[in-house]
Amino acid sequence: MPFVALDDEPQVASPKGSFVPLDEPQAAKSSFVPLDEEPQQPQAPAPEGVFQSFLHPIERYLPTSLATAAGGIAGGAAGGLAGIETGPGAIATAVAGDIAGGTAAGAAYEKAREAIIGPEATRAEEAQLAANEQANPWSSKIGGMIGQLPAFIGGGAGLFKGAKAAAEKAGETFVPTALQSVAEQAKGGARMLGAQEAGQEATGQKPFSWGAIPEAIAQGAITMGPLGFVSKIPGLGEEATSLVGKTLQTAGHAAGSAEILAHSNALYNSVVKGEPYDELAVQKTAASDAPAFALIGAAGHIFNHPAVKDVNNAIDQTKEVAPATAAVRENEVKPLAEAKAAG
Predict the structure, then answer these.
(1) I want to staple 286 with a disulfide (CB 3.0 to 4.6 A). Which of 71, 163, 258, 271 is the partner?
(2) From its phi and psi, is residue 274 left (phi > 0), alpha (psi between -120 and 50) or beta?
């Protein structure tokens, strides 16, 4: 029988009969990852083509924009009615109702959309849009501006028409035209950015903050309100009649709008957020935004073309004539047919 020294470590049998020291554990079958190694981040999606980069943001943002516009128009109408007896006060109540209604409607749509498609699909689409914007900035930006445009417009004409009527009823002076244009642009910007911020918070893309939504509303009003001065640029105030005039006017509107918006955003970020003011970056932003403004302006000229107006007028007249035709048929044609059938 062999002897083992007392200072030797005892050995135990392994399942196959070999011996391993107790202080030498067997290697685990699975490999271990050191704690200081960060988990791998998901890879960014491959960018889509130029045309798809244009269409994708329209598809993504247009329903939200329409919901925002609908909520704003309804809220503005309700607010205007609430302040109708106060004369000029109807402007304040209508604007407040418009911004509140648009912000709430936009956020509600975003929350409902996320509930339908799921948070992962929402994040994946945002990543895809970001990849598209990086690879195809112009087409992506133009599509994004078109998709978000309805959130910015709508409700202004009726809002101020009602406010003017209320002011005249109370014997007060209405807001001057220049300020009216600036106020309408500010209202649209406040509604649009407020809805964007509320939607991102509602879907968890941003942490909830009590002050973030009012700040976004203020930023939208301050930065987009100056767009109302574009029509005061010489040569841009009156609608051009010739094709050359319309082309030059569209280009002027686009360049003026892009410059004003880029500078107002840069000034806001510099004064409010303390970011450095970089004129070169401002001009690059204005140059990249101008094509989108030009395309939107061209679309506006198309919708305001006399031929398009004639078609719309014909449709309206058909709608007006249709009930009368139906009434004549009900009161005269139908009884004659019934009498003939009875005879």
Answers:
(1) 258
(2) left
Query: What gap in Å lies between CA 219 and CA 264, rounded to an integer?
Result: 10
Contact of 146 with 66, CB cutoff 8 Å: no
Residue 204 CB partners (closer than 8 Å, separation 6+): 119
**Mind listing the pLDDT tens digit for each residue in 275-331?**
999 999 999 888 888 887 887 777 666 655 555 445 545 555 554 444 554 554 555
pLDDT digits (tens, 9 = 90+) for 221-247: 888 888 777 766 655 555 656 666 667
Tokens in use for 218?
């203020």
Three-state secondary structure along the chain?
A: CCCCCCCCCCEEECCCCCEEECCCCCCCCCCCCCCCCCCCCCCCCCCCCHHHHHHHHHHHHHHHHHHHHHHHHHHHHHHHHHCHHHCCHHHHHHHHHHHHHHHHHHHHHHHHHHHHHCHHHHHHHHHHHHHHHHHCHHHHHHHHHHHHHHHHCCCHHHHHHHHHHHHHHCCCCCCCHHHHHHHHHHHHHHHHHHHHHHHHHHCCCCCCCCCHHHHHHHHHHHHHHHHHHHHHCCCCCCCCCCHHHHHHHHHHHHHHHHHHHHHHHHHHHHHCCCCCCCHHHHHHHHHHHHHHHHHHHHHHHHHCCHHHHHHHHHHHHHHHHHHHHHHHHHHHHHHHHHHHHHC
